[in-house]
């Protein structure tokens, strides 16, 4: 994890009687401020166990969930993990997802700017947005863009994703100003196409605040889950997680 956090571990591993590592469950830890309170998060990452040791797999999950004081997220559960998570108290995030073609729109509105230049990001972002950028600038999957117009900015974090083996999609992970993002959506999509070579955008209305024009909704969006005693869907985002750290 490139960001600073007091992490108790980086996950748990399984060893057999000979001391060989036969399984592991990775974890990403962070501290987030929600409603004025600092909350500790554990994001469940990759979970791999050798076939002959699969009956011990649940020990890894129970070890992670047995850590007190954490909110838990699982943002890329496999099909077999979903029902197990459900039994253990996880609930689903609203991951309704739109897919929109990125077209070479004209450079409108005038006076607006789209930049992925690290120097521009450093000089434009302020406060919590600047800290988020610095925490994620060295991650493997997160890509950063700032939209500016009329003295306002919108900080956008996205990742490239594959669908049916094709790396043609930009998945939006974070939008700091949904209103400005909506106003500059065409400029942003043109940037994705012309500067990053990405022909389509995947976006959850929960994340960007609206459904884009010319979009269609995916019939089977990828599931994401969380477990908390009191946090709600709107309290959970995709920063400080495997989605920003791992490309696939």
Automatic annotation (TrEMBL):
InterPro entries: Acyl_CoA_acyltransferase
Protein name per UniProt: Uncharacterized protein
Organism domain of life: Bacteria
């Amino acid at each position: 994890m490139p960001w600073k956090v007091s992490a108790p571990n980086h996950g748990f591993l399984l060893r057999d009687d000979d001391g060989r590592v036969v399984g592991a469950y990775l974890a990403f830890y962070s501290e987030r401020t929600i409603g004025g309170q600092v909350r500790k998060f554990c994001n469940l990452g990759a979970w791999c166990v050798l076939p002959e040791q699969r009956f011990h797999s649940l020990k890894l999950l129970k070890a992670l969930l047995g850590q007190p004081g954490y909110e838990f997220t699982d943002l890329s559960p496999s099909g077999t993990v979903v029902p197990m998570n459900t039994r253990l108290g996880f609930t689903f995030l609203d991951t309704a997802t739109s897919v929109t073609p990125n077209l070479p729109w004209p450079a409108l509105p005038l006076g607006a700017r789209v930049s992925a230049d690290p120097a521009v990001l450093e000089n434009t972002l302020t406060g919590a947005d600047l800290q988020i950028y610095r925490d994620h600038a060295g991650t493997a999957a997160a890509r950063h863009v700032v939209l500016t117009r009329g003295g306002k900015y919108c900080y956008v974090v996205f990742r490239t994703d594959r669908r049916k083996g094709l790396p043609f999609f930009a998945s939006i992970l974070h939008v700091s100003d949904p209103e400005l993002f909506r106003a500059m959506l065409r400029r942003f999509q043109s940037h994705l196409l012309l500067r990053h070579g990405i022909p389509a955008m995947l976006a959850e209305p929960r994340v960007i605040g609206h459904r884009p024009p010319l979009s269609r909704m995916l019939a089977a969006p990828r599931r994401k889950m969380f477990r908390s005693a009191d946090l709600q869907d709107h309290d959970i985002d995709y920063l400080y997680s495997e989605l920003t750290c791992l490309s696939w």
